[in-house]
Amino acid sequence: MRLHIILRYIGVVLLLNAAFLLISAAISFFNGDSALFPLGYTGLISALFGVFPFIFVPSTEEITNKEGFTIVVSSWLLSCLIGMIPYVLWGGEFTVTNAWFESVSGFTTTGSSILTDIEALPKGLLFWRSATHWIGGVGIIIFVLSVLSSMGKVGMVLYRAEMSPLATANFRFRTTRTLQIIMFVYVGLTVLETMALMLCGMNLFDAITHSFATIATGGFSTKNLSIAYYGSAAVETVIMVFMVLSGINFGLLFVTLLGNMRALLRSTVVRFYLAALFAGVALTAFNIHGTVFSGWLVSLRYAAFQVISIGTSTGFATTDTTLWPPFSQLLILFFTLQCACSGSTSGGIKIDRSVLLWHAIKKRITKVEHPHAVVKAKIDMVAIDEDTLEASLLYIILYIGIVFVSSLIICGMGVDIMTAFSASAATMGNVGPGFGLVGSTGNFNHIPEMGKWILTGDMLLGRLEIFGLLLFFLLKKWK
Amino acid sequence: MRLRAKILSGFLILSAMLLVAGVWSIYELSTIGISVQKILDDNYRSVNAAKSMIEALEREDSGILLLLLGKREEGRTIIGSADESFRKAYETARSNITIPGEEEYVDEIMNTYDIYRNLWRQSVVGTAREGDLNWYLRDTHPAFLKAKLAAQRLMTLNDQTMYLTASNLESRAHRATMPGIIAVASAFIFAIIFSFLINLFVVNPIIKLTDGIQHYLDSGSPLEVRIETEDELSDLVSSVETLIARSKQ
Prior knowledge:
The complex is a heterodimer of chains A (479) and B (249). With 479 residues, chain A is mostly helical.
């Protein structure tokens, strides 16, 4: 493995981070706030570290899969490391552990926060916090590759290492074209949401930061009360629409935008996704009506926002769901585990795997009935090979296993079972809020220090789809 | 890029990291010094003035009690000197308004003091008020308490601001020390990367070239040294190749 080549491409990622850090520093400068130096200095360090390998290391035509993989995982880890420096430098509630937690939560688009008073943060730092969502949402490497489209074969290797295998199925284009489509949809949705939020009365800063957090399905708000601060049905509706859109495979969204609406509606995964959200909203509204809220409309409003927010792994809040009946809490926990479609910015197990699981169950039942029958699982008339099916089922088992183990460890630190389990599930699924002490209006500040490190591990495992991070630590064994 | 520029850029980057962090630490530390001075100038003087006003008011209250007991001379002397002290302290507070809303607090002191002052300016000894505790408890003592409360409120306001400024100083101290720590850690990592790249792109090619020349001298086989970069080292290799070619002719 050529370390210098890895350094060169990680340098590009650092330069991307530096650009956003310097934009945040500029906001601090114009706002005259105390985050100017923390952001500016980190931007400078990031830029210098990013530029230096370019000076020494000549470009290369090809990289190996192993190198590509190392570049991807290292880029995520280094971005999180660089991302925590402005927090540490600024101080306040940010200890080293808290800064790491906030940074990882930002880049992995989890949206869990350790902050008890978000509004005490200067604007520049608030912008950086949202920017980490936006950089991480589409995938750090995807972001870089779409900016630098001339990487040739290197780009292809990095693209394969970054993208989930499930996500690529919906992109039937060349790598460069796919990257262009992803970025077009990503930036387009962000711009559209910013404009829509401004039309609803939000100021430019809040509109941009909330759009970053919505399209990346992150969930960091600039307000202590999250979206509840605005108390506006229009704002909530706009955010709900864009949360739902951000949970759909970007390739399908692009095809729909080109006029092929049927592709979207005929997709089993999208239909399952929309049906699950619809059922979730209806059941929750029915359950909270009369117990939490007296009116049907108000029940529907809060149920829709919370279910969509969790079901797309965004994590914004308009109310305290820890006060909801156990049925609604369990329903939301189901969405915390499942989340939305692959190829979107969403986290969790993903609908695609749920659909595959459902088909695997159907296939098994048929095999029991007709032991000699040759049964093929099919989605959208396409046969699913055994490898994909097995990998998906293994992923689900491993995913739940990791959630269980981290819940167990956190419980062992004296945290109650609901808080421990929901915190583990919410961080593993990159959702954000859980239940118990880490509810939709709570925060993760009181989780023990070691617990925070475990939860950040969950966030990274969830974002890199488990195998990504695990393989990185087993690189030496690669042949 | 030439080798000289590459090495120079490494040192420049290292210097920039340390320089910026150093300058910022110095700036934050000097700001802490200014803030400490500001606390003393802005708040501590007002706190002292408020304390003096409270002390003067208490002396005036004692003077009124002496008047009630019929001790006119002693009472008037104490009240006169306390009034003078109060006015001096009040002027200090008036000239040191630095906190938003502080002016209203200062105005309130003078308003309540004027009411109190009008009461003790009246004749007491030899009038119906002498020995009249009801007059004291009904009129003068409540007015005294009101004036004292107004002065105490000014003191509390300045105390709170002092506490807040001191808390900010803690954050500033944090900001002054952290750049140093981050800069040292970054410089350390950078130095490792720098030496790795120097080793890879400078030392290794020299070793390769030396080995290549030695191999040529030992076996007479052609010099085969590939240098990835286009800098002084690649120039050196081609010069050696030219030298060998010429020596063969």
